[in-house]
Amino acid sequence: MKNRKKEFQLAVYPWGNCDMSCSYCYFKGNNGILDPKDFISVLLFLKKKLSGFSKITFLGGEPTLKEDLLIKYLQAAKKIIPYCDFFLFTNGLNSSQKIFKILNMYSVNVILSLDGFQRINIVQRKPSAKIKYSPKKIAEKFLNSGLKSLAFSLTVTPENVRFLFSNISKLFYMGAGALGWNIDYSSAWSERSLSELKKQAEKERKFYTGLLKKKTAYRIINCYELIEEIEKGIKPSCSTVSVFPDGNLYACDKFFNGENNAKRVSLLSRNSFWSDRKAFFTAAAKKGFPDSGLICRAGIYFYHKFVKCHIGEDLKNKTAASLKAAETAEKEKMKSLKLFLKCDYFREIHSL
Fold first, then answer.
1. Which strands form 240-243's sheet, in the order they lie side by side?
2. CATH classification of 8-236+324-349, choosing from 1.10.268.10, 3.90.230.10, 3.20.20.70, 3.40.920.10?
């Protein structure tokens, strides 16, 4: 952490298929499949152009649905970039000993997306009608899977925010050693729901402070960018490029919407990819949406403009509401981290 330098990462969306239809997911309606040859082409391009490229994250659709293809991606990446770290987000529905073995074989850091245990979370995630979804059983299965690296990620919405601390504490007592949360900024956050978010964050803050004193605290995921801002004054900025099922690179994952191919406005030529990528973010910054923040401000703008296709005053109002929610979440996280960083044990478990 002390000598961290900015490193680019590749976000891989191999297909649009998923056995859930989460209300807050923006990657829907695309049934294409990323050809392993296209994936290799992207890796070779990035390896040639980037000196600090060492992280690949597989997202969804659900990346575990096609085991054979996932293996091909992992094999190719390991061969081309041997020092690369792998991360994979999963809803856990397609878990099996075979999947766990594959993930361990390639030392994949697994993040289980598990928003909570209440009915509202099941309703929001909309699992396939053929599937009986039990967040508790999935959490238990993963905790007993023998995975080398496992973390839990909670997406917080205005509808489930009142259960945030309850879900965090339950996962901890079930045995989770690493977890974190972030908000769904696409939702309509009222003053009341934002106030509830602050209350829940304060509950977690007090709970976590007690765990630090006992030296039993879990690791908080997705906190290093904010820690760098606190300790070095370096604001988080976007370091991600994305590849989608069509095999093309995109400057931001909010640019691609498989429901309407005409929205692929950010499909960039590789010959001018970096300059064009910079131009997109520069244009967003001029409108007041820089590529900074734990929740990228440019990403918020791109989401409402290209995914939701808002225009005019509607675009202005929607982005303003999302910004307020993002800023509230970040302020609460910063408040917590400033407190936790005073503790040697916190620094130890986060390798600071």
1. 219-220, 178-183, 150-156, 109-113, 85-90, 53-58, 8-12, 240-243, 249-250
2. 3.20.20.70
